[in-house]
């Protein structure tokens, strides 16, 4: 850590922005890139150096983090004409996006040809945890590289979970986590819609679910905001639709039967096709309730 003088961070959205801010004020300089000037502003105010491309960041930073919205952007940022692969200073690339085993391997192979190592490091906890510094940090890759970036991951989140020595293993764990969470959200939304249509009070339903055997983080901590009328957890529904498609693809490649996940994936994709892609993903509750001719909303909302 003492020898690292320049750290890069690419992608300053609802997850990447708060994570990059937690690297400010350390013994190293933070270099950033994002196409959005508004996303860059808090980092500039905190002392970060702005660059015009991922490649420019990789020209000055030996370790570069990336938190990006989809596979295509990750591929371009990693290996494209202005990608980090062309950087002259970069030695380790830390891919924090959820992009699947195949894509992390493709990017890793391209970087390896230029002597750049990769750490597969997706995160879990959502935007509130990113802002609070309580994210669960996953990591997989060559042990020496993971050991090198682990102290930095610890600055960003609460705990680092090393999933294996091959890049891609953290991707699988993140996808497993996401498909369980997203499937739970569908199940909880359907149950709440059923109760609301029968005349049950949404506030009392949430209290009972938090106290009883139906308790889940998805219902108690995520959907509780939607029941209260706050659709602001911090990720677009399109991202969950993407993650569910990734999860089902991985299950198929591994020859794992996943009929319940497939059903949940279909519900998320139907919501996306209905035009809710840009809405906060907690709006799945509204979509499912409307499909069933009801409304699930706190009496105080």
Could you characterize what this model shows?
The chain folds into two domains: 6-167, 3-Layer(aba) Sandwich (Rossmann fold), CATH 3.40.50; 172-291, N-(1-d-carboxylethyl)-l-norvaline Dehydrogenase, domain 2 (Orthogonal Bundle), CATH 1.10.1040. The chain is α/β, with parallel strands linked by helices and 301 residues long. Helix 2 links the parallel strand 2 and strand 3. The protein has a six-stranded parallel sheet with strand order 3-2-1-4-5-6, sandwiched between helices. The longest helix is centred in the middle third of the chain and has 29 residues, at 169-197. It is globular and about 65 Å long. It has helices at 16-21, 37-45, 54-58, 71-79, 101-112, 126-132, 143-156, 169-197, 202-211, 217-227, 237-253, 259-276, 284-291, and strands at residues 6-10, 29-33, 49-50, 63-66, 92-95, 117-120, 123-124, 136-140, 159-164.
């Amino acid at each position: 850590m003492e020898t690292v003088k320049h750290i890069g961070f690419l992608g300053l959205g609802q997850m990447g922005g708060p994570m990059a801010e937690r690297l400010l004020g350390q013994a190293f300089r933070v270099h950033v890139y994002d196409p959005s000037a508004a996303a860059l502003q808090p980092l500039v105010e905190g002392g970060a150096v702005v660059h015009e491309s991922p490649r420019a960041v990789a020209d000055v930073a030996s370790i570069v983090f990336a938190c990006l919205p989809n596979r295509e952007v990750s591929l371009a940022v990693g290996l494209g004409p202005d990608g980090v692969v062309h950087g002259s200073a970069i030695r380790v690339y830390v891919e924090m996006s959820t992009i699947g085993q195949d894509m992390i391997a493709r990017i890793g192979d391209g970087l390896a040809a230029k002597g750049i190592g990769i750490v597969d490091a997706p995160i879990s906890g959502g935007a509130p945890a990113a802002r609070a510094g309580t994210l669960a940090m996953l990591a997989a890759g060559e042990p020496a590289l993971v050991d090198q970036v682990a102290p930095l991951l610890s600055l960003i989140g609460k705990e680092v979970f090393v999933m294996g020595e091959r890049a891609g293993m953290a991707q699988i764990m993140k996808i497993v986590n996401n498909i369980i969470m997203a499937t739970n959200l569908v199940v909880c939304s359907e149950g709440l819609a059923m109760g609301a249509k029968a005349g049950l009070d949404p506030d009392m339903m949430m209290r009972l679910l938090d106290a009883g055997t139906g308790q889940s983080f998805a219902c108690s901590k995520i959907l509780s905001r939607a029941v209260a009328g706050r659709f602001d957890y911090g990720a677009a529904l399109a991202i969950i639709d993407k993650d569910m498609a990734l999860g089902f693809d991985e299950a198929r490649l591994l020859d794992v039967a996943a009929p319940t996940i497939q059903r949940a994936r279909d519900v998320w994709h139907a919501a996306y096709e209905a035009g809710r892609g840009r809405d906060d993903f907690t709006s799945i509750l509204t979509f499912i309730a409307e499909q069933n001719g009801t409304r699930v909303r706190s009496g105080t909302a």
